[in-house]
Write a structure and sequence with these properties.
This is N-acetyltransferase domain-containing protein. By secondary structure, the protein is α+β, with helices and mostly antiparallel strands. Helices cover about 25% and strands about 30% of the residues.
């Protein structure tokens, strides 16, 4: 097993309430595995993981006050034809441990949520029941990351998201930081994560560059 990516330290520190200085600066780190790069924004400080030289990043004048997630800067990182993911809020909570409250789910390989997880993460586990499914995997920079999707979104499923997410936290050891990337526009999902004790620590965009 290789050394963890240095971005992981930023996430783990943030989960403990220790954030980089709000100095408006941008820290440039090496790229992520599997051809991925990212731009992560904390309060007043940004972290960019890329193959580009540090000076080439700073020449674009990103900053820690939002410009590191601007469309023009992200397109510069990705190149003319590179893939740019959506801007997600970065949330964190703690595993609760104890007996697992969800069983491994079989036969879900073709589910869109599972396919998406396996495109971007490693060691993907799928759990769930009649309420929905969750994926638990090694995500951005190796952090423990989960996602959730209900089988139904009508009123008869109200409360299922919170109960499923609460049960999902039992799959991680007690006290272990667990992370999630949630679209701010998905207000229902965001409210669910917040209600289950997840705390916002920043925002992020994943990229798969294509450069000449």
């Amino acid at each position: 097993m290789g050394e963890p990516h240095p971005l992981l330290t930023f996430f783990l520190d943030a989960a403990d309430g220790r954030f980089p200085p709000a100095d408006g600066r941008v820290t440039v780190l090496p790229p992520l595995p599997a051809g991925l790069e990212c731009s992560v924004a904390f309060t007043g400080h940004a972290v960019v993981a890329t193959t580009l030289a540090s000076q080439a990043v700073h020449d674009q004048a990103p900053d820690g006050f939002g410009a590191s997630l601007s469309p023009d800067f992200l397109r510069h990182l990705a190149g003319p034809n590179g893939w740019i993911g959506v801007t997600d809020a970065t949330l964190t909570a703690r595993g609760t441990g104890g007996p697992p409250r969800l069983q491994t789910l079989v036969g879900a390989d073709d589910h869109q949520r599972v396919r998406h997880a396996r495109e971007l993460r490693s060691n993907v586990e799928v759990h769930g029941d009649e309420r929905g499914l969750i994926t638990l995997a090694d995500g951005l920079a190796g952090r423990r990351e989960l996602s959730i999707e209900l089988h139904h979104t009508q009123d008869d499923s109200r409360g299922h998201g919170r109960s499923l997410l609460t049960d999902a936290l039992s799959l991680a050891p007690e006290g272990e930081p667990v992370f999630a990337a949630v679209s701010p526009g998905n207000a229902r999902s965001l409210r669910t994560f917040l209600a289950c004790g997840f705390t916002p620590i920043g925002s992020e965009v994943l990229l798969r560059p294509e450069r000449q």
